[in-house]
Amino acid sequence: MAETTKHEAWDPMQYLRFGDERLRPALDMLGRVPLAAPARIVDLGCGPGNVTAILKQRFPAAAVTGLDGSAAMLAKARVVAPDCDFVQGDFFTWVPEEKPDLIYSNAALHWVGEHAVLFSRLLSLLPPGGVLAVQMPAMHKEPLRTLPLTVMTSEPWAEHLRGVTSARNILEPGEYWDMVRPRVSALDLWETTYMHALTGENAVGEWATGSSLRPFLDALPIELRAPFRAAYDAEANKIYPRRADGITLLPFRRLFIVARV
User: Among the four 134, 164, 223, 251, which has the fewest Cβ within 10 Å?
Assistant: First the structure.
């Protein structure tokens, strides 16, 4: 991610605990990218580099660069994708040395605001025929995202969590259409709800700890983190119960934007 409450707090191994489930949307979007042989690719918000490595496998002749704001994630990424380049930077200030043919962003842009400014900027970095491909969770109205805001109002953690937020609320699909379509030659816009099948106890809490719950945990004193997680788990397990076969189903809606300049 390029912007979180504390960059260094992101744990690559926790994020990858449900790696297969988190990768599926990235693979689905990759299949919709209308490019045969891009020469330069940027993985925007590359995280631990698992998607960066897939981009390199899909387009082996391309020069692939991963950009992220987290040094911990980039350290992991350099191991996962050693044949790619990685840069620590910010989505709003980063400038590529050469215009990339593909800017690919999987589950990252929902962490930053000002999407009208950001999308305009990213499109301006592409050459004619270049592609911007973006996937973002569209979960801001769902319990997975709203539960921390409820739990944080209770003591003893309320005093520590005032003003703490997680990922931003993304716009409605039609707003992205109106924002992007006038600037591009083709736009593919869709939503998919995935039924992520999670294993283990407190599976939703484990999933959220690798992403949206992280800013709340990081803002708490160490001794309050486990009790906060337990309170979150108690509520999450009511909404997302573990099934008879041990699986917890997490419905997860995602928005996809694939735009060709």
Answer: 223
